[in-house]
């Protein structure tokens, strides 16, 4: 029942007949959470719709002198709690509807973390691999100009997503700043630290996954030092989560990349296995007693399974075969809605993505605070404050979980929707 992933593979059809679109998932999850709450149906109705969707034409001169025209979007869902916040992706399959759905999903994520932001998502329908760096820069600067009126540090703050990176954000911030006549680092997050990016931003989603795993393990009365963990995906999220959990004494027994995985029942040395960013697709070359397929990794008899690669990997066809005692969603949308129901029937706890990997948007919030205050934080401060925010959010979700006898996913959405509904109620409807 997760929203579709921010990752390109997420949209791929799994064995469940028709994976829902991002909008369908976001609306259904809204409706589900609303059923537990005594809130004004008009508020729910408002939250089903985006506040604004800007569609723009982005023409650029290619390196060979020809002009090519792309379509870009920025969907702003809800800003009752603060400026819109969400990624910008460059991918051939970016659509208006996808931006709307993922923007809604950002609203829930910011609300569950109690960040003073609403949700947005945008992007350009383009294959970034077919552009030179110069073309990507021209595309980004022109796109920045086309959406300049609706973004800004107090309006809407984009961030990197699929196909974009800190350099893209640097160009966007520069283009915006040039037109505004003042350097405005707070217009985007995920920038390089030298121009106002935050220390610890890259590692934050994996760090939050580790923190939430630790809290969940503790909640069920297990000892982290005796907890066997399997992690699918060894990129930013998977490797950072693995290494932190390893530091805290957990046994990370299996990790994988797109080619497959390695398994050591005695625990792997997570630091010596190169992450995707250190050396792409090198997991299988690392010495380990056993190898395992990606499908096999998901079905290992471990205590905790962390899918941290792509969406829709836990499906109707393997949900009954998952032997882990708990799933922590590192990736966005790794569990299809049918699998989610099967896990609920099996009483297998699934800690949802909107909580577990929210360290990324949380440190983006810290970055924004540093930018508007013109005062950088140390890595230690970032990590300390992230720890506090994650544990607070965990406790808020746990309270709903205990009070209402719902799944962890529904508990997280209930926390988010209660906050949104209260803010809407308090502000009222203009005019
Ligand atoms: P990444 O590109 O750094 O790493 C992805 C890893 O998954 C790599 O090891 C890759 O080899 C592996 N992989 C790719 N396809 C696979 C497949 N089909 N099966 C198994 N492994 C596969 O990506 P990331 O930033 O770690 O993101 C992973 C997931 O977490 C995505 O769903 C992403 O949307 C989500 N996420 C990322 C962030 C972030 O800021 N990095 C924040 C929140 C959520």
Structure characterization notes:
The protein has helices spanning 22-34, 41-47, 96-112, 133-146, 166-180, 204-219, 236-247, 294-298, 337-345, 353-356, 359-373, 379-404, 408-427, and strands at residues 52-61, 67-78, 84-91, 118-125, 156-160, 228-232, 251-257, 260-263, 290-292, 304-307, 326-328, 350-351. The chain is of the alpha/beta class. Among the domains are: 50-183, Leucine Dehydrogenase, chain A, domain 1 (Rossmann fold); 204-356, Rossmann fold (3-Layer(aba) Sandwich). The strands form two sheets. A seven-stranded mixed β-sheet has the order 9-8-7-6-10-11-12. A five-stranded mixed β-sheet has the order 1-2-4-3-5. The chain binds nicotinamide-adenine-dinucleotide (NAD). Nicotinamide-adenine-dinucleotide (NAD) is lined by residues 5-7, 9, 205, 232-238, 256-258, 276, 281, 294, 308-311, 330-332, 357, 360.
Major beta-sheet overview? 7 strands, mixed
| Total number of beta strands | 12
Order of helical and strand elements: HHEEEHEHEHHEHEEEHEEHEHHHH
Q: Portion of residues in helices?
A: 40-55%
Provide a concise account of the structure shown.
The protein is α/β, with parallel strands linked by helices and 431 residues long. The chain contains 13 helices and twelve strands. Helix 3 links the parallel strand 3 and strand 4.
